[in-house]
Design goal:
This protein has about 325 residues and is an alpha+beta fold. The chain contains ten helices and nine strands. Bound molecules: FE2/S2 (inorganic) cluster (2 copies).
């Protein structure tokens, strides 16, 4: 019994001495305890960098045996994995550290700059990619767990063809609606919007805000981002879309809406001026969704709706403005 106890609970962490001619109790080359102690000293990191590893099972010195049984030469360290990543329908064989994020693997190992890094701690969404259709933060996803056939989709994989004319409707809408400034957040927003529109091509403003809740734009382009997603959705539904910016690649892009003929417009003055022009943008976006309203322009003090007289008249337009919380003067 005493020998059994010694076998189960080795007291020393010293390496086993060469054969002294007497039977030794079998013990692992590196015990769990050794591993934990050395981990604290940073030995794991060194092991990864040098290719050294730790025994995966008890490597015993057999009683009476002069040699220590070594692990198979082909054993790779526990701290790395060989995985096959399926990114934008291309397969990449890569050896990754088990602590390596998908963003790190794509950028540092594969040279793919398909998603940006913002916070590197799952807070901003700049690194958003899709894994099997779900928007996830590439900075917080371990590459080692993505080698089981998961389909990773980045902003480079959604275009329909080369050049600006081949942009996916979501990409085109962000571009032509001006849904960006510095662009750090844009790829993440595009992918979150893409994921939403794959399952819901007619989202409400609240649904869009919910779907993009994990993405932060430090430049504050939220109004135009919202508008871009709505226009992309309209285009995906097959509707004619007009963008804020001119469609300079019109010959390759879907036809934009021609200005409606026979429309009516009138400038009104708000009873209570808006606080900021950003407020106007959001209100205009809401108004444009009302049947019969074909355009809106204005400022913090005035608004000029354009409407289809076959569907609306001035009284109804005034009523719509009241319903949106912005009545205008008689
Ligand atoms: S960089 Fe990944 S969430 Fe911010
Ligand atoms: S465009 Fe600059 S952070 Fe969004």
């Amino acid at each position: 019994m005493a020998d059994d106890k010694q076998f189960l609970e080795p007291k020393s962490t010293e390496p086993i001495e060469p054969d002294s001619g007497t039977a030794q109790p079998a013990r692992p080359l590196v015990t769990r305890r050794d591993f934990l102690i050395r981990s604290n000293a940073g030995a794991v990191a060194v092991g990864v960098m040098t290719g050294a590893g730790f025994a995966t099972s008890l490597v015993q010195r057999q009683p009476g045996s002069p040699q220590v049984v070594q692990p198979p030469a082909a054993t790779i360290p526990l701290t790395v994995r060989r995985v096959t990543l399926n990114i934008d329908q291309k397969k990449y064989e890569v050896t990754v550290d088990v602590r390596e994020s998908l963003w790190e693997t794509m950028n540092y190992q594969l040279g793919l700059s398909n998603c940006n890094l913002g916070c590197d701690r799952a807070q901003c969404g700049a690194c958003t990619v899709l894994v099997d259709g779900k928007a996830v933060n590439g900075c917080a996803l371990l590459s080692a767990r993505l080698g089981r056939g998961q389909k990773i989709l980045t902003v480079a994989g959604i275009a329909n063809g080369p050049g600006p004319g081949g942009l996916h409707p979501v990409q085109r809408a962000f571009w032509l609606e001006g849904g960006f400034q510095c662009g750090i957040c844009t790829r993440g927003f595009v992918m979150s919007a893409y994921a939403l529109l794959q399952t819901n091509m007619n989202p409400t403003n609240d649904q869009i805000k919910e779907a993009l809740a994990g993405n932060i734009c430090r430049c504050g382009e939220y109004t135009k981002i919202l508008s871009a997603v709505k226009k992309a959705a309209a285009e995906l539904r097959g509707e004619r879309v007009s963008y804020t910016a001119p469609l300079i690649f019109a010959e390759k892009a879907p036809p934009s809406a021609a200005p409606a003929e026979g429309t009516v417009s009138k400038q009104f003055e708000f009873v209570t001026p808006l606080g900021t022009i950003e407020q106007f943008d959001e209100m205009a976006l809401e108004l444009k969704q009302k049947p019969g309203i074909v355009g809106v322009s204005g400022s913090e003090r005035t608004i000029t709706p354009v409407w289809d007289p076959a569907k609306l008249d001035e009284t109804k337009v005034r009523q719509i403005l009241v319903e949106t919380g912005h009545p205008v003067r008689p």
